[in-house]
Amino acid sequence: MIIDGTNLILGRLASVAAKKALLGDDIIIVNCDKVLVTGTKKNIVEIYKEKTDRGNPFKGPFFPKIPDRIVRRTIRSMLPYKKPRGREAYKRIMCYLGVPKKYEKENLETIKQASAQELKRYRYINLTTVKSNLK
């Protein structure tokens, strides 16, 4: 299953992807830089800054700063990744910035329940904005 992440809300996208991966589907998410996080810009940046600055830079815990890795980490938190079933499901999930050449001709699916336009959410920013404000 190839999911286009454009204008999809991160948490809803992650929950659907985690469920499909647990059921045995291979999940590929493209355009991760266009995934949205709901809330005000100030609160979102503050939360992600807190997560990235936590811990020791040599020992962790480590939190990603690149949008595709943030999406994959969010999906991981919805899986039982410390158990074999969750580890196998996590290996079936791949996230990409933009659309790789080998998936350009494939038909990209969207998740209607995760769309910001369908839910009429007004306060959100995309992960590229979050990344640029973390520096």
Describe the structure.
It is a single chain. The chain has helices at 10-22, 41-53, 67-76, 84-91, 116-119, 127-133, and strands at 2-4, 27-30, 36-38, 93-95, 124-126. By secondary structure, the chain is of the alpha/beta class. The protein has one domain (2-133): Ribosomal Protein L13p, Chain: A. The strands form 2 sheets. A 3-stranded parallel β-sheet has the order 1-2-4. Strands 3-5 form a two-stranded antiparallel ribbon. Helix 1 links the parallel strand 1 (2-4) and strand 2 (27-30). The longest helix has 13 residues, at 10-22. The chain is globular, with a radius of gyration of 15 Å.
Biggest sheet record: 3 strands, parallel
In the CATH hierarchy, what is the superfamily? Answer: Ribosomal protein L13
> What is the CA–CA distance across the termini?
34 Å
Q: Count the E strands.
A: 5
Sheet with the most strands: spatial strand order: 1-2-4
Order of helices and strands: EHEEHHHEHEH
The shape, in one word, is globular
| Share in β-strands | 5-15%
**Domains (count):** 1
> How big is the Rg?
15 Å
Helix content: 40-55%
CATH architecture identity: Alpha-Beta Complex
The top level CATH class name: Alpha Beta
